Amino acid sequence: MTPIVSAQVSPTANELPFKVLVIIELASVLAGPQVGQFFAELGATVLKIEHAAQGGDVTRSWKTSAEPADTDVSAYFSSSNWGKQSLALDLTTAEGRAAIHALAARADVVLASYKPGDAEKLCVDYETLANLNPQLIYGHITGYGPEVHRAGYDAVLQAEAGFMHLNALPGQAPLKMPVAMVDLLTAHQLKEGLLTALYRRARTGQGALVQVSLLDSALASLANQGTGWLVTGHDPQPMGSGHPSIVPYGTVYQAADGRKLVLAIGSDRQFQQLCAALGRPLWATDLRFATNSARVTYRNELEELLQKRIGEVNGAELLLALEQRAVPAGAVRTVGEALTAKSAQHMLIPPCAAFPYSGLRTVAFRSNAWPVMPALSAPPHIGQQSAAVLNQGDEGHPQLKNDVFS
């Protein structure tokens, strides 16, 4: 079978950039599937491989108590699996391996999330598949790198990389973030690696192995908190939602009407405008607060004044006044409030007959050179497209339908 050399095809104006790419998804849960949906939103054919006897992607069963029990498409599963085709294959069998090898021989990208050594046991490791298709790009997610035979779980990595320690109020218990943030950060790292590999393949015709780990992705995302320790030797301490080097920034205040809001004051001029909006212009000339460095030193005194004053004013009116003065501030919204806001509507995938609920896009950038898919097929049931993609040959071996690769 001839591999697709899609990166050598020049796209026309306003064409979906990945419409000729075929992605094989051997990944599950969140990080890998997020990458698969990213490619699907930009036009790629994404074949999600699932082991039906084991229930497929484990997130199919991760349901809240409010969800219906009689479906294998949970809300969690739907967060990362729009626009894909599900193929039920048992890779422990010769038939299943023959099918995946036939797919890989003509695919562009493989997404995998096996513990080190597991892909080799199933004969779906990079070396095996690259021998079938030298132009293949193989993205592999591990928990701790290719040498560590330890499964990676987001909550554990949030703890081990320092995020839970920082995500707490002083003196209170550490907290994990309410989404699998390390998984999402890892998905972004893998996307960047795969896009780099696709660019390289377009220039050289060569495939590549791209490896990312949850641990490396988490450590890379410590950003200023990590470099703060590297530069000063002082271990960052929990501050709730406050910021270690900017004040006021991130603290939650409650206004007289009950509205909770946050400020993100990044300059002295913004602080001056905040003081004017609050009717307290003299705060901006107080030597304790006139500069950011002074505000960091006298953090507690300023926060006490702000909490009291904001508690005396109408929150909606204050936010409007701050917007007019170009002072960064916002209301603390619920998830429902955030997703029903007018500004969020372009990030929603429209519902369809097979799944009458909206979805969330993974593509959050826009370009004047290409579109995203305006609508996507519903998150698939286990093996829903097996018959459409695979045929049985005369000897009982799976044969690929050529239109999948057209």
Automatic annotation (TrEMBL):
Keyword RNA-binding tagged: no
Entry keyword annotation includes Transferase: yes
Source species taxonomy: Bacteria, Pseudomonadati, Bacteroidota, Cytophagia, Cytophagales
Entry keyword set: Transferase
Annotated PANTHER family: SUCCINATE--HYDROXYMETHYLGLUTARATE COA-TRANSFERASE
InterPro entries referenced in this protein's UniProt entry, alphabetically: CoA-transferase_III_domain, CoA-Trfase_fam_III, CoA-Trfase_III_dom3_sf, CoA-Trfase_III_dom_1_sf
Name of the protein: CoA transferase
GO MF term list: CoA-transferase activity
Top-level taxon of the source organism: Bacteria
Pfam families in the cross-refs: CoA_transf_3 (PF02515)
